[in-house]
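Appendix C reproduces, verbatim, an entry submitted by the partner laboratory led by Prof. M.T., so that reviewers can inspect both the input and the predicted structure.
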Amino acid sequence: MPLYWDEKTLLLKTETSYGVDATPTGAANALLVTDVRLSPMEGQDVDRALEMPWMGASGTIPTGLHAKLSFKVELKGSGTAGSAPAFGPVLKALGFAEVIAAGASVTYSRVSKNHSSATICLNIAGTLYKILGARGTGTLRVNAQGIVYLEAELTGLFVQPSSQALPAVTLGTQLSQFPQVATSANTPTFTVDATALVLRSLALNLGNTVSTRFLIGSESVIIEKISEMIDFTVEAVPLATLNPYALAAAGGLVPLSLVHGTGAGKICTLTVPRLQLQRPSGLEQQNRIVEWPLRGVPLPDSGNDQLTLAFT
């Protein structure tokens, strides 16, 4: 009897102690995602390289075992101001801290140490793939007339797959609340240096360097470095309005703001106080209109303040 790929559930929960099963449940920790990709048993195969009196292979030993999981999740608020979105634990596993202001907002900002980790339970047609101590990197992607997504790439400790029935899951507003696509009405603000620009696309690459660290007495997945980059394409404007060439040449730092979503509990705001614009790579045109493909590096000021993602 074949196993059907579409029969799957994904549960994800922040761990209290690294690598200790947080025991996610279908009622509280189900996550609605798309474009799931799983590599359940990554690692190396060490050749025994035995000297034998005959020709033939001597076998290998698997080492450094870990798992990798990637997916996309709709970037949208919970629908209630001050209530964390369902994918909040994902952001925490990507190197963010979560601060909740009751009834008002949930804000995610970068942290440089003691990164959170997650337990993941991916069940595909009755086979449970559990991943412990998961951390990773990702990209926030906005395209005009498209759904706004957070693309996550998580790496964690290997656990032997097991047979387990698909759990019952509660998806709530993840399913019933449709995402607001990126349009002029739904994405009312995009500014660079306080200048409103017409936006075609934006990609915030979190730039986390994720490594496995397997030693005797300690095995873990760590975020060892963070270096974000933002790529965005906008309609060109007169240089008197915004001059990316002069800003890039001077190493100027400018604020960037993106607001997506309308309605209480449905608004997501990306704030970058100090964006260093890089050299523009060239010009593009769509419908005979000049467009700038631009990129910039969010720079910290006092530390861990290079960007925030707030849900209100």
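Residues 8-45+62-311 form one domain. Additional entries are available on request from the coordinating office.
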